[in-house]
Amino acid sequence: MIQTLPLALPGTLVDHHRIDMTALYSKGWGVHPFDVAGSPSGEVYALYGVYRHTYGVADEEQDPQKANFGYRVINRYSAGGEVLASAVFRTGGAEKGDSAVADGKDISLCVLPDGVLAITATPDTTTLVAPDLSRVLAVYDSKDGRPFKGFTPGEGDAFAGSISVTPSGRLLCTVAEYGVWRYGNVINNLVGVADGALTADAKPVINVLASLDPEPAHQSAVDLRPHATYQGAPVGMAHRPRPSLTELAAGEDSLSKWDGSRLGRPVALSDSLFVVPFYARTFRGGSRGQPFVFALLDDQGEMTGRLHGLHEWRDSPFTGFCRNVAADAHRGHAFHLNRYGLYAWNKAGVLRAKLDTGTKPFKPLTHFTLAACAPNGDLLLVHNKQHLILRIPAPDDLTRLAATAEEALRAYARERTTLKKQWSPVNWHWTTSSTPVHRI
Predict the structure, then answer these.
(1) Going by C-beta distance under 8 Å and a sequence separation of 6 or more, which residues neighbour residue 14?
(2) Can you give the pTM of this predicted structure?
(3) Per-residue model confidence as pLDDT tens digits over 284-337
């Protein structure tokens, strides 16, 4: 079913800070989507940020209508598209003292097999939230903020920087390490699978399958990852899977030799086959044409192939930094959307469809970000300026993707008009005062 869902700001938050939604973002405020996740029941969760940083306003300002702020907001939608509830927490989470959520960089969502919502961020912070968004159930926080904060070995209780769920309930995770590419901070470097349940009472061990940087620098015994093991021993120092992903693709980055490359969020094509994206370093003057790989990795850690058919320049994900890959694990299909097209592959890594955004029917896709696939395979896209989620039904046959997407974009235009009449948004900012808002 094609759906269009508004990223609705809680009206109480807008009123509390007297947010001027008619103002341009250049005035120091904004709304930014982070991630969308679907549940097996058909419900959808959307995570986005709202902030205000006004020049000349002191950090100590007490008047909420003038003070600077930053929030993360999660909306929960019913299978029919109704906004059921919202949860709000400060940017910085528990560090700000008024939230239980462990915040961090590259924040994302995942609905676990038992329906619990996991908020993950780098480095290896995982917060479990009740399905109705009413409360935080557990927090797994690495408490590793190097180099900006002190690090006390053994103080934290880390889990993963991102989680994706396979059809049978395995957890496909990324894990960060210190010293990746000789940097003095903690960066995602490992991909692994956890076969046990992640609950408020216990976390499973992550069996590490692959690494990005084979030899992170400056590590000692305090940098071992006891919750992430390879061949039965904690990962760290000289112990991790080799050859690394970058060693397997060593000849493809002639400029930087993959030095400074970054690991994307892996997704599951099946219970035993995963897509692991990684990207060469970016440059201030532009990075279009830099190499990237969407690797196919099995659950034994072997790189069995890749998603083929993309040109480093003509199909570059570096334009606009469109780095997400999504997967329909039940049909064995992978998807990627960037400024140049929507691409779809089968399980063998063969490109079966490309919807060229240079053509009139698919030009609107340049304004969307592909967030994820729902458990039933539907594509979940977010419009970057109109703050709407578009749900596109997954076709069984990828040759039908063009017709399906074209129909969905036409339906989006109609449903957007209907929503504007119902919601009366201000500069494409939607607000609701009729749903419960939980402070977590």
Answers:
(1) 21, 431
(2) 0.96
(3) 888 999 999 999 999 999 999 999 999 999 999 999 999 999 999 999 999 999
In the chain the first and final C-alpha atoms are separated, in Å, by 32
The pair of structure tokens assigned to 312 is 């480093």
Give CA separation, 398 vs 276, 353, 402, in Å: 21, 6, 8
Question: 359 is written with which tokens?
Answer: 């053509």
Helix (H) / strand (E) element for 15: namely: helix 11-17
Number of H helices, E strands in the chain: 3, 30
Cβ atoms within 10 Å of 27's Cβ, excluding its own: 13
Cα–Cα separations (whole angstroms), residue 208 to 56, 189, 221: 48, 10, 18
- How distant, in Å, are the alpha carbons of 7, 158, 174, 190 from that of 223? 39, 12, 16, 14
Q: How far apart are CA 229 and CA 301, in angstroms?
A: 13
**Helix spans in 201-288 (H):** 245-248
C-alpha angle 435/439/440, rounded to 5°?
A: 125
Residue partners of 52: CB distance under 8 A and separation at least 6: 17, 19, 28, 29, 68, 69, 70
Contact 264, 324 (CB under 8 A): yes
Distance CA 352, CA 334 (A): 10
pLDDT tens profile 262-280: 999 999 999 999 999 999 9
